[in-house]
Amino acid sequence: MRRKTYVAALGLPLAALLTGAGFMVPSAFAATAGSGTDTGTSPSAGDDVVVVDCAHQLQVKPDTISLACGDGNDQLVGLDWSGWNADEATATGREVINTCDPSCADGSWQSYPVTVRLVDSKPFADRPERYFTRVIVDGPNGHHEHKLAE
């Protein structure tokens, strides 16, 4: 199975760009971005369902999912997957989020433990795989849902 390192390929330049623009990138994200560590795998013949990352790459059990593709101010990191099937994928990890108070450039980063569920898989029009369309995050700050990239 080929390993994807999209965070290493895109994360480090993004981190450099954001830092150069006055943004503070969370150390957990910056460390993952530059480490070249496994951030998930690309789908193989046996994989029925994937998650589409911000770079529109198909991922199975990614280590990181961005909930804010435009600015990186909300990331799910260190994801440890306990289940992955066509109906649902479940993981624990941490949400690293910029408070954006008073602004995103001057905000502080917070990190807390979360449970993550990927749900509502749909078929691609032109591929054999299915993809998850929503992520549900539960943690100390409550329950929130996000639409995933398609």
UniProtKB/TrEMBL annotation:
Taxonomic superkingdom: Bacteria
The entry's keywords: Signal
Span of the signal peptide: 1-30
Protein name as annotated: Secreted protein
